[in-house]
Design brief:
By secondary structure, the chain is α+β, with helices and mostly antiparallel strands. The protein has helices at about 1-10, 55-65, and strands at about 10-15, 20-25, 40-45, 50. The relative contact order is 0.18.
Length: about 80
């Protein structure tokens, strides 16, 4: 069934940023790192203790990854 689905899907996908600029061309053997989807716990930057993530952690993460030129996308959960 998976192979059947792959035959029927587009051969590439393009992802654009908020300003309409192409940020990822998902085609062929292109590889893009997409951080953030597996944060079951987070290391608190103040206490250095592991804890469950909260909204402010997502905000910090979004600001950081948006500023990194080598990160074209980030996962959200």
């Amino acid at each position: 069934m998976s192979r059947e689905c792959l035959k029927n899907c587009a051969s590439f996908h393009q992802v654009f940023d908020r300003s309409g600029q192409l940020t990822m061309n998902l085609e062929g053997d292109a590889v893009h790192f997409d951080p953030g989807s597996g944060a079951l716990t987070i290391l608190d930057p103040l206490t250095l203790e592991a804890r469950k993530p909260v909204t402010r952690d997502l905000i910090r993460f979004a600001i950081l990854t948006d500023a990194l030129p080598n990160i074209a996308a980030r996962a959200r959960r």
